[in-house]
Specification:
It is a single chain. The chain is built from eleven helices and seven strands. It is of the alpha/beta class and 270 residues long. The chain folds into two domains: 168 residues, Alpha/beta knot (3-Layer(aba) Sandwich), CATH 3.40.1280.10; 66 residues, no CATH class. The chain has a seven-stranded parallel beta sheet with strand order 3-2-1-6-4-7-5. Strand 1, helix 2 and strand 2 form a beta-alpha-beta unit.
Length: 270
């Protein structure tokens, strides 16, 4: 027997595998970084997003590597595997695309794309070869001659009142957009099978009997009252009315438990 459903999903699975593979071709390039803490935090951000290769261009000679290791936490393997270059040109020589990030304006900085908007295109390119995500210095960003080497210019949309973003935060946001576009994350799913309608009806009947027995409602009220309970079973507690119903059930159940007048009564639940 041929599993037609499985066959129909195969192209989608193939695309997802290619996207995940493309993440391996994404390289983070930090130019002239001043602070070890930012390098380490960037490594942690990269690891969060499945990006594993860090390239440094002329980092500050006084950069504190011990602090970098502290901030990398469990991503010290990314830090230890870093590659260092003298110039940006050398660092991106093997890349098929170079995406530079900047918040500054100017003649050569007019054609920016939203990092989320351009992420799928960068992933497509990463399927063919290395793609660099380039971040400038903490104090003055990328120089014009470095911007000129970029094939794409990215800007992270933020409030106009304060547009400066910490270097490691910029790495995280940009790498996350690439990661999200790859479809690599698979959310957890419910392991238990969906309840069949027959079981739901048994549940409803038992709840109707139980709520009647504890005095939450009379038999005459049960049809109307159980509509609210049905709604809660279907979607969870969302409204004040939903919460009021469940609080009423809890209070009545406690009263029935502690009220001596109900001793000896057996609930007819089955």
């Amino acid at each position: 027997m041929v599993d037609c459903a499985g066959m129909s999903n195969e192209p989608e699975k193939s695309v997802a595998r290619a996207r995940r593979k493309a993440l391996e071709n994404v390289k983070v390039v930090l130019v002239g970084t001043l602070y070890g803490g930012n390098v380490g935090s960037a490594c942690r951000a990269m690891a969060n997003c499945g990006v594993r290769e860090l390239r440094l261009v002329a980092p500050d000679p006084d950069l504190t590597w011990e602090f970098a290791r502290q901030m990398a936490v469990h991503a010290t393997d990314v830090l230890d595997a870093r590659r260092t270059f003298a110039t940006l040109e050398e660092a991106v020589a093997d890349c098929v695309a170079v995406a530079g990030t900047s918040r500054r304006g100017g003649l050569y900085r007019r054609h920016f794309a939203d990092s989320r908007e351009v992420a799928p295109e960068l992933l497509d390119l990463a399927e063919t070869g290395p793609v660099a995500l380039v971040f400038g210095r903490e104090d003055k960003g990328l120089l014009n001659e470095e911007v000129a080497q970029c094939t794409h210019l990215l800007r992270i949309p933020v409030d106009e009142g304060y547009t400066s973003i910490n270097l490691a935060q910029a790495v995280l946001i940009t790498a996350y957009e690439i990661f999200a576009a790859s479809g690599s994350y698979v959310p957890p799913h419910e392991k238990s099978a969906a309840a069949p309608q027959g079981l739901k009806m048994v549940l409803t009947r038992n709840w109707t009997t139980a709520l009647t027995d504890i005095g939450f409602m009379s038999e005459k009220e049960s049809e109307y009252m159980m509509q609210g309970v049905h709604r809660i079973f279907s979607r969870g507690v969302q409204t004040r009315d939903d919460a009021a119903i469940m609080l009423g059930v809890a209070r009545q159940a406690l009263w029935a438990h502690h009220n001596p007048a109900l001793e000896g009564r057996k609930p007819s639940i089955g």
